[in-house]
Design goal:
The chain is α/β, with parallel strands linked by helices. About 40% of the residues lie in helices and about 20% in strands. Helix 3 packs parallel to helix 4. The radius of gyration is 17 Å and the shape is globular. The structure holds calcium ion.
């Protein structure tokens, strides 16, 4: 036995799901519909949705924001974990993807607590910074990787102290350690990962779930 994180082969991954996944039928239906779409690999893994929902409950979250909603799985998993008066802000650019999302949010009975903000995320985030700074409990970043660093800064402003930022795809299919891969997205992920290690504004953990999920908890401000 080694003390490193256990690699999961298919059989062990299936076992993990079989003894722990509690996915509501509407989430399963959404996941299965999305699996047939062209960009299906942009959907988060079901155990990751459950993990994020667990974190929301753990910190008593009421306000959740995500940058990159796709077909709505993460927003739905999180909306279902929030209390009655909880609110979700879901940012995306695609009418087509979020039309699927809206259908399932309606079906699950949580559409009323989800604000879909279509358009350029940078613009939407700037507006929210002006009106809602310090009010969010949890921010999930899962959109264009070249803007990750900017989204992270925005998320820090939007969060209350003790709030959590979750950043998706931080292992990027393993290409973060392949020096021959030098496209803008991969480089942006590498740079953010490296910068977060010494960013003392946050507590840090990189969880090897899905494609790698970094958790950063906003520390109480002492120096600014
Ligand atoms: Ca993702």
């Amino acid at each position: 036995m080694s003390n490193r994180t256990l690699p999961l082969d298919d059989a062990l991954y299936d076992y993990l799901l079989s003894v722990s996944l509690r996915e509501s039928p509407v989430l399963t239906a959404l996941r299965e519909e999305t699996a047939h779409m062209e960009m299906a690999n942009m959907q988060i893994a079901p155990e990751q949705g459950q993990f994020m929902a667990f974190l929301l409950r753990l910190i008593g979250a009421k306000r959740y924001l995500e940058v990159g909603a796709f077909t709505g799985y993460s927003a739905l998993a999180c909306a279902l974990a929030l209390p009655e008066d909880g609110e979700v802000y879901a940012l995306d650019t695609s009418e087509e993807w979020t039309a699927v999302a809206r259908r399932y949010w309606e079906e699950a009975g949580v559409a009323g607590r989800i604000h879909l903000e279509l358009g350029d995320a940078t613009t939407t985030l700037a507006k929210l910074e002006a009106s809602d700074a310090g009010t969010f409990d949890f921010v999930f970043i899962d959109a264009d990787k070249t803007a990750y660093a900017a989204y992270f800064e925005s998320a820090l402003k939007l969060l209350r102290p003790g709030g959590v930022i979750a950043i998706d795809n931080v292992l990027w299919g393993g290409s973060v350690i392949d020096a021959s891969v030098t496209d803008d997205e991969t480089c942006a992920i590498r740079e953010l990962n490296a910068a977060l290690l010494t960013d003392n504004r946050v507590d840090l953990s990189l969880v090897p779930i899905g494609d790698g999920l970094t958790l950063a908890r906003k520390c109480s401000m002492t120096s600014d």
